[in-house]
Amino acid sequence: TLAKDTLQALYPAKQEFYLSTSGLTEFYRNEYRYFLRYVLGLQEELRLRPDARSHGNFLHRIFERALQLPNDDSFDQRLEQA
């Protein structure tokens, strides 16, 4: 539970309390997640992931660069350098 002064800071008595349908649904599904999102205002970390095409293009460029380096080093060393 939250301390009384924390609750008063988050939800002042003179301010209207608003609860959306999605907020109520979130509370029903997972009270802790509701608390993190709607009470503390935290959001999930945004994770960017390249699509398959971008990932493939990136790997292709790395291998292309590695193969253009002198053959004196092992392939693993050339990959590190690329």
From TrEMBL:
The keyword Membrane is annotated on this UniProt entry = no
Give GO BP annotations, semicolon-separated. Answer: DNA recombination; DNA repair
Q: What is this protein called?
A: PD-(D/E)XK endonuclease-like domain-containing protein
Q: Does the keyword Nuclease apply?
A: yes
GO MF entry, a single one: ATP binding
The PD-(D/E)XK endonuclease-like domain covers 19-78
Keyword annotations for this protein, in alphabetical order, are: ATP-binding, DNA damage, DNA repair, DNA-binding, Exonuclease, Helicase, Hydrolase, Nuclease, Nucleotide-binding
